[in-house]
């Protein structure tokens, strides 16, 4: 195997290998999504007793089968663009609640959002100050910047100085004046500090901070404490402690029982459910470096290039063979940054071997690009 196994069990290691090899034999590169894993993750978060409503942050993976599966698990949906609202509207029943949480969206984007049933989140003065009449008579959500960010990489922190998200608290009074002048009611408060957070405690702090703001505002019914629930990716990294999260949220909810608690996770629901299958094209030695080339790279999965993200990599053809060296796993894209994994301990590769890149269900396909005109990466769904 890869010799760098995670503590977490994974569906692809335990019993699905033959099925994945058959899928790769038809074509590569391909994303494969395992719906039982999506459902299991969805149910785990549904067990959080203090949470009144869970939204799936659609940006992580917009495949219609995943949207349908999560709607069936009782999830609402959080969308950030008219395109995401459209994709969700097509896939899920009209009774499912939607949130529209765009950032630096145009007036036209808001007009399109307002034409749907979505509850709109504003995170700046500009829309309420300049386009206030659009929201007249509406109940809206206000996203605030609590002054700090968190996350697995600087580029995914969405709070504090240097982050473009959220209304700074010093503009809160001005926002409320504009809202009042336009007959707009601020019914919810929202904060999302960042993505890939493994510390359960911070969501309790966010709820507490939003609750004390809500006491000042008076019209608030629900507090959306965002998503950001991380999954361990590096070998040895500990899983987010869901029991601890449950305890923390129950505690803050008991202190402020009059506010509904909403969350909007993306990654946690879909990351482990997806793998990217690729095929070995060539190997190359260069000085002391050994390169293992596969038939897709940053065009399919940009996370390693963009965030130095770690995705476990396994040679599925040789899962039981011992590692023979350290490999740089690279794609065919004309960029030195086109690396899927550095210094990976893998068995001796041969042209045609199937390589599996794990934890590719979140922010994989949705962030892919046509760069170098490599073509779209297909997606395959396993329903059972
Ligand atoms: N809510 C808001 C307002 C967000 O901005 C995000 C993610 C989420 C919820 C869902 O976060 P999650 O639970 O998935 O961490 N492309 C990056 C992640 C960017 C996340 C953007 N916002 C990555 O691949 O790590």
UniProtKB/TrEMBL annotation:
Entry annotated with the keyword Nucleotidyltransferase: no
Q: Which domain of life is it from?
A: Eukaryota
Query: Which keywords appear in this protein's UniProt record, sorted alphabetically?
Result: Amino-acid biosynthesis, ATP-binding, Decarboxylase, Kinase, Lyase, Nucleotide-binding, Pyridoxal phosphate, Threonine biosynthesis, Transferase
Enzyme active site:
334 (proton donor)
Coiled-coil intervals, chain numbering: none
Which Gene Ontology BP annotations are present? lysine biosynthetic process via diaminopimelate; threonine biosynthetic process
The Orn/DAP/Arg decarboxylase 2 N-terminal domain, residue ranges: 38-271
| Keyword Magnesium (UniProt) | no
Q: Which GO terms describe its molecular function?
A: aspartate kinase activity; ATP binding; diaminopimelate decarboxylase activity
Task: Mark the residues carrying the PTM N6-(pyridoxal phosphate)lysine.
Answer: 59
- Which named protein is this? aspartate kinase
Native source species: Dorcoceras hygrometricum
